[in-house]
Design brief:
single chain, alpha+beta
Length: about 160
């Protein structure tokens, strides 16, 4: 009995120590949880700001691509119009103007675009060769895109 009662007191002491350390642990954990929480919020903020920058950059790239496609289509249409003027369907003699502007049709895709055409005639032996350069500029706000198409033809 004597040994058994000693164990009980030793057990009680260890249990009282563990209850003391358990009571003090939540206070220590609350401070570290606060630091971890601030760290997680900071990391989430940095990730969110990086994602916002990526979205803005892709939006700008998409806008540039759309306006570039419109400018390319306008330049192609200008070159086609210059070829139609140079080689009319009715068989009459065409005109090769050194510099001219092409009035774009009133179509949604061509708004805010302008096309400048240049035509140069070269005589090689008995054949006349033409070089048509069509440059389209489309702009909206801060976005300005230019595309150029060059066509060569013999007549």
């Amino acid at each position: 009995m004597f040994l058994n009662s000693g164990r009980k007191t030793a057990y009680k002491r260890s249990s009282s120590r563990s209850s003391l350390s358990r009571a003090s642990l939540p206070a220590q954990q609350r401070g570290s949880a606060l630091i971890i929480g601030v760290f997680v919020i900071t990391v989430m903020f940095l990730l969110a700001s990086a994602l916002i920058n990526i979205v803005q950059d892709s939006d700008t790239a998409l806008t540039q691509e759309v306006w570039g496609t419109r400018a390319f289509a306008a330049a192609n249409s200008g070159a086609d119009a210059a070829l139609a003027q140079l080689f009319p369907l009715n068989g009459s003699v065409g005109i090769c103007l050194a510099t001219s502007t092409w009035n774009l049709p009133n179509v949604t895709g061509f708004h805010a675009c302008s096309v400048t055409l240049t035509c140069t005639a070269y005589a090689v032996d008995a054949v006349t060769q033409y070089r048509i350069n069509s440059k389209a500029i489309c702009e909206s706000g801060e976005t300005r895109v230019s595309r150029q198409v060059e066509v060569e033809a013999r007549g």
